[in-house]
Amino acid sequence: MAVTSFDPIVSKRLRIPNSHTLEVYLSNDGYVGLKKALSMNPEDVASEVMTASLLGRGGAGFPAGRKWAMLKNDLVKYLVINGDESEPATFKDHELVEKDPHQIIEGTIIAAYALGVTQAFIFCRGEFALGFERLQSALNEAYEYGALGRDIFGSGFSLDMVIHPGAGAYICGEETALLESLEGKRGYPRIKPPFFPAVIGLYGKPTVVNNMETVSNLPWIVINGGAAFAALGEGSSAGTRLFALSGHVNRPGWYEIEMAKTTFRDLIEHPDLGGGIRMGRSLKAFIPGGVSAPWFGPNEMDMPLSQDAVAQAGSMLGSGSVVVMDETTCPVRAAWRITKFFSRESCGQCTPCREGSGWIERTMRRIELGAGRMEDIDLVLDACDNISPGLSWPPKQTTICVLGPSIPSSVNSAITMFRDDFVAHIKDGKCNYA
Fold first, then answer.
1. In CATH, what number does 331-428 get?
2. To pair with 383 at 20 to 30 A between CA atoms, which of 28, 90, 226, 258?
């Protein structure tokens, strides 16, 4: 495969100076999509999104059009945009918030119009200080421009929008925990089924929750048509997607690529993208979709960046983060640090996650520090199996949300792929890569 050529969709303004301002946004097709959408029937806008086969860009990859179709018709219903990007090494939404906030707002308005919603919320990660400031300024500019408020552009459609800062909890990236937080409660995920947010969501009313990058595609889809978006990519992995590439590469950063027609090797090694492994070293492993995802090795480098292909191989594209680890990486240390993060971020509502994450983290720490025992390898896998029975992917759940069953991914991957490194830690009492 080769890196394909296409006109960027969500990143076309990100490198333009002052791209966060209304002036620059309007000079680069800003709010053109909204004006066209308002001239269409709401059902036709939703139909274009369905035709586009736009998958959610937040992690689960659920088709946006199908999620919209699930929304229960009610006098009061809400739209919530999830910008609580807290997965380690994931920073694509961060770029959109800081450098193109008007695109997020325009996409949100289009979605609200298609859904018949008159109140929308954008939940922005609290640590995005500059991004939150720019998003709020963009919101004020949108109101002044007439893109928000009563009778938008004389269309008869009215919408109010609120920017809400999160308080730094990773768990609020889970949509129902986010809704709890919006309601002023502790960010505990809700049990589902039987009721999903599309039926009972924010304040007990039907609610659609979409990711920031997901709605950022909507202005382009409305202008160019859903079929044009679906023509990019392949199969169910239509369109383009932003990937956050980090780790041991020469050119870490965000890259918009055409899905399914680009491989992990292209993303990591192409001179215009990752530029290869730093210092000419060899690849040891990479994480394809955020640290929740099972790891891949060098044999998966030629796999296309396709939702289905990655899922069939036993992992996920998830949050759009690809983390590269070279031959000097200690897999024990990497897996322990990921586990430590999840243990700290567990909301504590479910016993397997609350207790199991701590047990796994402490055992991994013992191995990492050279004080481990040979039986600790099977012990930590047994603890992982209690959180996610079978250690398969997609994970089997013993908890309300998927945070708990995501904890075993890195540990199981590291032990399965690099068991000798764990044995060396235990026998030699030190890391071979220090």
1. 1.20.1440.230
2. 90
